[in-house]
Write a structure and sequence with these properties.
The protein is mainly alpha-helical and 310 residues long. The protein has a single domain, classed as Farnesyl Diphosphate Synthase (Orthogonal Bundle). It has 16 helices and no strands. The radius of gyration is 20 Å and the shape is flat. The N and C termini lie far apart (46 Å). Pathway: Porphyrin-containing compound metabolism; heme O biosynthesis; heme O from protoheme: step 1/1.
């Protein structure tokens, strides 16, 4: 990592700066998918335990974000999308970010173990380690497969939520994990197509940088094809059903159409219209994941025993 002291500029950090350090937008997705994992499990969980579990999962996600910002401050400072983050902007010192990340990590894991069970706490600890060390410190700067392998970090929350309720790992929780894991590459590569210059300047070996945009377009299409059977397969388990399958068929059809349009795009045309299609597919991919997990919730709400968490 570059000399992080360059970003340790004195300044008055406000409450909002520390909130941004925890990556609240990423945390919101973690909280939602973890909550779904907990609520669709076929086990009753006391509302207080459910609330505490989600709170500590959220703290763990925030800890991961703080550790990532501490480590990546050097490359964040040269990327337009990230240069305003608290550490490169000089609002929070790197040492503070590290301390917040480590402190929240220990607190979140310990309290989740006490509130729910130690399997879920162990999964949370591994998730934090995977994101901060395996992805941020190793994969991100060393291989164009960074987002493929590193996507596992964002895929664990529903598995953790399920473990909070059941104390186990099941086919259902593995399929929720696989859904996010397979969704991450086409989602992120769509973003990378219109953010290539940022990654080039930062020296991050994103696929668009190492293999070019044409190859990235092909990868998006291939991974979308691989995503579809995973998404549909979840519909034939205990957490699926007609609502989920209907939603999944429609969402995957639309996502595949978007990936096909991206694949067919000529680079000159894409640049001329400011990557409108790529940006549209990226935005849709966010709804894609949210609506899949919303459909899981709808199925759980209609079951005779209702949602397991309440």
């Amino acid at each position: 990592m570059s000399d992080i002291r360059a970003y340790e500029q004195p300044g008055e950090a406000g409450f909002g700066d520390y909130v941004q350090l925890l990556k609240p937008r990423v945390m919101s997705l973690v909280v939602f998918t973890a909550l779904v994992g907990l609520l669709v499990a076929p086990v009753s969980v006391h509302p207080v335990i459910a609330f505490a579990s989600i709170l500590f999962i959220a703290l763990g996600a925030g800890a991961s974000g703080a550790l990532n910002m501490w480590w990546d401050a050097d490359i964040d400072a040269v990327m337009r999308r990230t240069k305003g983050r608290p550490v490169p902007a000089g609002k929070v010192e790197a040492g503070e970010a590290l301390a917040v990340g480590l402190g929240l990590s220990g607190l979140a894991v310990l309290m989740l173990g006490l509130a729910a069970n130690w399997l879920s706490a162990g999964l949370l600890a591994f998730t934090i380690f995977f994101y901060a060390v395996i992805y941020s410190m190793w994969l991100k700067r060393s291989t164009p497969q960074n987002i493929v392998i590193g996507g596992a970090a964002g895929a664990f929350p529903p598995m953790i939520g399920w473990a909070c309720a059941t104390g186990t790992v099941s086919v259902e929780s593995l399929l929720m994990f696989a859904l996010i894991f397979m969704w991450t590459p086409p989602h992120f590569w769509a973003l990378a197509l219109f953010m290539k210059d940022d990654y080039s300047k930062a020296g991050v070996p994103m696929l668009t940088v190492t293999h070019g945009r044409k190859a990235t377009r092909t990868h998006i299409l291939v991974y979308t094809f691989l995503l579809i059977p995973v998404a549909l397969g979840a519909g034939f388990t205990s957490i699926g059903g007609p609502i989920y399958l209907t939603a999944s068929i429609l969402l995957n059809g639309w996502f595949l159409l978007g990936a096909w349009r991206i694949w067919r795009r000529d680079e000159a045309v894409a640049e001329a219209d400011n990557y409108a299609v790529e940006k549209s597919v990226f935005r849709f991919s966010l709804y894609y994941l949210f609506l899949h997990f919303g459909a899981f919730l709808a199925e759980a709400a209609l079951r005779p025993y209702g949602m397991g968490g309440w």
